Amino acid sequence: MTYEWMEGRFFLLQRVALTQFGQPVTGLEVIGNLRPFGEPVSADVVSRFYDSTGNTLDYVYELTGDKLTIWGGAKGSPAYYQGTFSADDTTVTGEWVYPGGGGYPSTMTRV
User: Fold this and answer.
1) CA-CA distance, 81 to 45, in Å (whole number)?
2) Which of 17, 19, 16 is nearest to 29 (CA)?
3) Strand partners, 85
4) pLDDT tens-digit series, residues 65-83
5) CB atoms within 10 A of CB 59
6) DSSP state string for 9-72
7) CA distance 77 to 51
8) Cα 111 from Cα 103, distance rounded (Å)
9) Is the pLDDT of residue 111 over 90?
10) Cβ contact 20:40 at 8 Å
């Protein structure tokens, strides 16, 4: 996965090319605050992920101190990622949790 700011720095783009549960996954996620026509900017940071098989997945991001939670769908969803930033902000280490006990560990490293 790689991250880059879109021009203007209002949206963060995540490009994905990985293997998950033995299947290749490629896609693009656009992360930022919503601002529909004529409305104020939303307080929540949200995203939509588009993958090469035609799926679209929505997420809500929540950052409290050094704790990052990414909700799969709406905030409070039983599918979520919870991770902690390192003291030097170079890594986020945590785990995806899925309903029914599934999930997997995940570490993101700034390079």
Assistant:
1) 15
2) 16
3) 92
4) 999 999 999 999 999 999 9
5) 21
6) SS-EEEEEEEEETTEEEEEEEEEEE---TTSPPPSSEEEEEEETTS-EEEEEEEEETTEEEEEE
7) 21
8) 25
9) no
10) no
pTM: predicted TM-score of the whole model, two decimal places: 0.89
Q: Are 41 and 35 in contact (CB under 8 A)?
A: yes
Q: Look up residue 96 and give its two tokens.
A: 């995806």
DSSP state letter for 84: E
For 29-64, the pLDDT digits (tens) are: 999 999 999 999 999 999 999 999 899 999 999 999
**pLDDT score of 102 more than 90:** no
- Which distant-in-sequence residues (6+ apart) come within 8 Å of 97 by Cβ? 78, 79, 80, 81, 82, 103
Cβ atoms 30, 13 nearer than 8 A: yes
